[in-house]
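Model it.
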Amino acid sequence: MPTLALLVVLLLVLVGLLLTGGLAYMVYRRPVLTQPLTVALAGAAVLVAVVTAVVTVGV
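Modeled.
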């Protein structure tokens, strides 16, 4: 993979982790929404799926 593609994937991972943490914090502050761990893991699963798709297409 070219260096630019690797940097894009790294940026995607960092932004995804930030969003996952934001989801977990939001749900932690308002427990009525759902359990924080469930939402954070769902967000992380979506992130893994997107990164896997990007890496597979880039190879």
